């Protein structure tokens, strides 16, 4: 452990740079995943047949080992000269994030009290007004829980993206393995864990802030 | 004015949930839709604001056919109150009440003024409730807010689907009376769904009784109690319909029709506004032979006995 600490102190700049890279990759993937996943989740509540299919597909994607998914994308993205590096890692993380985000959005919106929906329609809200003013705010805590899930998952999988040259804290683990440098591996692994714990805590606070006040029954 | 013309709702091409219903609700009246569950009363109500599409027939609001209007615009011009109040838990009371004005694009000050006006009307202190959330309110308060929200944009027509159904009997009768007071001021045309005959008699200027989607009778409560159109109606209103009808008459009605005997003993005093159903229960519960009627200045006018009530009921039922 002492050795790992020494390694960290001697290579602070590099470790911090890799951490920032990691955050950048996961952050960008999460934002894009939300922009894709939340609308899909909301749409699915209006179409049960499609919902089953889409949720199945998202679940299957989750079961593909990440290293295999990276491998599969190399020939495809090589066509545009992006076979390895940032782009395939980003795409993989977006795909992995879809299940928790879509599923939580779908379940949350599905569970909005039908009376709320009836009242919203009855007083003359358009579909979009209903989604924006009623359904999303009520569903937000559960959607946020899905996002938290996706972020923690992505931070872990992001470490493996180093194997295809996407950078991030996985680089320390990758190089540590090839160089038999245990300290590097420990710094990389602890870094990933800390990052996941901090992100989860911060998102937990954000979740509480975003929960509409009236929904906080214990308050 | 709301006019139903041969309105029919068919599900899956076979079952008629609402079957060829025609009647007219005059401006400023409350029409209660009454009947057992599954009789189509709620379906008919929801056809007015097109939450349920009409299969056949037409509905006119102030002469305009509802199907010719934009669905969203139509609904914004119709107040809508449901049993479970349907307040949005994520919005404050003020935001809930002013949600329709907001959709209509009113400015902030106008919405604030309207909020204060409505809260005065429903008897809740605006400043105490403005920033609170629905879950912090009692059932009765939530339902009042639901009514205020429905009236926010001052729609000429209101639909109320068992608005007091989830409340306990004491709060319910309190809110019924309160709402009738409000109605005196605002004079809306109201369609009101209920499964409770007593509520229908209290609230309705007209009562429409449904069975299996068909309109059985549409009349003033008085007439329905005195002359049920058929076996179903008379069973539905109950064998105690004579006693129920007493609730529609006050001591003042009786005094107008019968001579009151001069005051005898100093007995319990009753005001002209008391309804005859209450009078009956005072006779039975408190064991008086006669009750002293007093006018607004508390001056005794005469006394009535239980026989007077009986005689009055007899006369009115025959004349109806």
Automatic annotation (TrEMBL), chain A:
Transmembrane segments: 23-46, 53-73, 79-96, 150-173, 185-206
Family matches, as PROSITE patterns: ABC_TM1
Location of the ABC transmembrane type-1 domain: 19-203
Pfam families in alphabetical order: BPD_transp_1
InterPro entries with a match to the protein in the record: ABC_transp_perm/SBD, MetI-like, MetI-like_sf
Membrane topology: Multi-pass membrane protein
GO cellular component: plasma membrane
Record SUPFAM superfamilies: MetI-like (SSF161098)
UniProt keyword list: Amino-acid transport, Membrane, Transmembrane, Transmembrane helix, Transport
Gene3D superfamilies per record: MetI-like
GO biological process: amino acid transport; glycine betaine transport; transmembrane transport
Main location, first listed in the record: membrane
Compartments (UniProt record): Cell membrane
PANTHER family: GLYCINE BETAINE/L-PROLINE TRANSPORT SYSTEM PERMEASE PROTEIN PROW, OSMOPROTECTANT IMPORT PERMEASE PROTEIN OSMW
Similarity section: Belongs to the binding-protein-dependent transport system permease family. CysTW subfamily.
UniProt name for this protein: Osmoprotectant transport system permease protein
Species this protein is from: Salipaludibacillus aurantiacus
From TrEMBL, chain B:
Domain ABC transporter per the UniProt entry, residue ranges: 2-237
Keywords: ATP-binding, CBS domain, Cell inner membrane, Cell membrane, Membrane, Nucleotide-binding, Repeat, Transport
A Gene Ontology BP annotation from the UniProt entry: amino acid transport
Bilayer topology: Peripheral membrane protein
Record's subcellular location: Cell inner membrane
Major localisation: membrane
Annotated CBS domain residues: 260-319
Coiled-coil segments on the chain, per record: none
Molecular functions (GO terms): ABC-type quaternary ammonium compound transporting activity; ATP binding; ATP hydrolysis activity
One GO cellular component, as annotated: plasma membrane
EC number(s) from the headed UniProt entry: 7.6.2.9
InterPro entries: AAA+_ATPase, ABC_transporter-like_ATP-bd, ABC_transporter-like_CS, CBS_dom, CBS_dom_sf, Gly-betaine_transp_ATP-bd, P-loop_NTPase
Gene3D superfamilies recorded: CBS-domain (3.10.580.10), P-loop containing nucleotide triphosphate hydrolases (3.40.50.300)
Catalytic activity: a quaternary ammonium(out) + ATP + H2O = a quaternary ammonium(in) + ADP + phosphate + H(+)
Subunit structure: The complex is composed of two ATP-binding proteins (OpuCA), two transmembrane proteins (OpuCB and OpuCD) and a solute-binding protein (OpuCC). The complex is probably composed of two ATP-binding proteins, two transmembrane proteins and a solute-binding protein.
Record-stated family: Belongs to the ABC transporter superfamily.
UniProt protein name: Quaternary amine transport ATP-binding protein
């Amino acid at each position: 452990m002492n050795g790992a600490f020494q390694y960290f102190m001697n290579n602070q700049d590099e470790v911090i740079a890799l951490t920032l890279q990691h955050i950048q990759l996961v952050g960008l993937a999460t934002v894009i995943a939300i922009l894709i996943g939340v609308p899909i989740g909301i749409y699915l509540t209006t179409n049960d047949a499609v919902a089953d299919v889409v949720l199945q597909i998202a679940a299957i994607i989750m079961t593909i080992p990440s290293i295999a998914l990276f491998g599969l994308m190399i020939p495809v993205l090589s066509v545009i000269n992006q076979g390895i590096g940032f782009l395939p890692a980003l795409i993989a993380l977006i795909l992995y994030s879809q299940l928790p985000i879509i599923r939580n959005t779908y379940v949350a919106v599905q569970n909005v009290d039908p009376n709320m929906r009836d009242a919203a329609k009855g007083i003359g809200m358009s579909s979009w007004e209903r989604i924006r003013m009623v359904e999303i705010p009520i569903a937000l805590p559960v959607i946020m829980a899905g996002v938290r899930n996706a972020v923690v998952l992505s931070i872990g999988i992001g470490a493996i993206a180093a194997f295809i040259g996407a950078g991030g804290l996985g680089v320390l683990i990758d190089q540590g393995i090839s160089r038999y440098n245990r300290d590097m591996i420990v710094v990389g692994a602890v870094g990933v864990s800390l990052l996941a714990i901090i992100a989860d805590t911060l998102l937990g606070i954000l979740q509480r802030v975003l929960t509409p006040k009236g929904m906080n029954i214990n308050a | 004015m709301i006019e139903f013309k041969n309105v029919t709702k068919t599900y899956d091409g076979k079952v008629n949930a609402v079957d060829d219903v025609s009647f007219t609700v005059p401006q400023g009246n409350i029409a209660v839709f009454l009947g057992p569950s599954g009789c189509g009363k709620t379906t008919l109500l929801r056809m007015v604001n097109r939450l349920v599409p009409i299969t056949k027939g037409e509905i006119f609001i102030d002469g305009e056919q509802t199907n010719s209007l934009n669905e969203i615009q139509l609904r914004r011009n119709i107040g809508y109150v449901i049993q479970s109040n349907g307040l949005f838990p994520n919005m404050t009371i003020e935001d809930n009440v002013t949600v329709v004005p907001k959709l209509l694009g009113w400015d902030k000050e106008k919405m604030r003024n309207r909020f204060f006006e409505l809260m005065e009307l429903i008897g809740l202190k605006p400043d105490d409730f403005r920033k609170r959330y629905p879950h912090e309110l009692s059932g009765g308060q939530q339902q009042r807010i639901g009514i205020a929200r429905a009236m926010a944009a001052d729609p000429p027509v209101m639909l109320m689907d068992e608005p007091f159904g989830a409340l306990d009997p004491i709060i319910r009768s309190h809110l019924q009376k309160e709402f009738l007071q409000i109605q005196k001021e605002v004079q809306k045309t109201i369609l009101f769904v209920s499964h409770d005959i007593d509520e229908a008699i209290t609230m309705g200027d007209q009562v429409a009784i449904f069975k299996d989607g068909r309109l059985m009778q549409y009349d003033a409560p008085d007439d329905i109690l005195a002359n049920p159109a058929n076996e179903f109606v008379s069973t539905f209103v109950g064998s105690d319909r004579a006693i129920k009808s007493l609730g529609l008459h006050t001591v003042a009605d009786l005094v107008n029709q019968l001579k009151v005997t001069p005051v005898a003993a100093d007995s319990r005093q009753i005001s002209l506004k008391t309804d005859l159903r209450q009078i009956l229960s005072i006779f039975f519960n408190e064991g008086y032979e006669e009750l002293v009627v007093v006018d607004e200045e508390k001056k005794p006018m005469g006394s009535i006995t239980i026989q007077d009530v009986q005689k009055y009921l007899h006369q009115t039922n025959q004349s109806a």
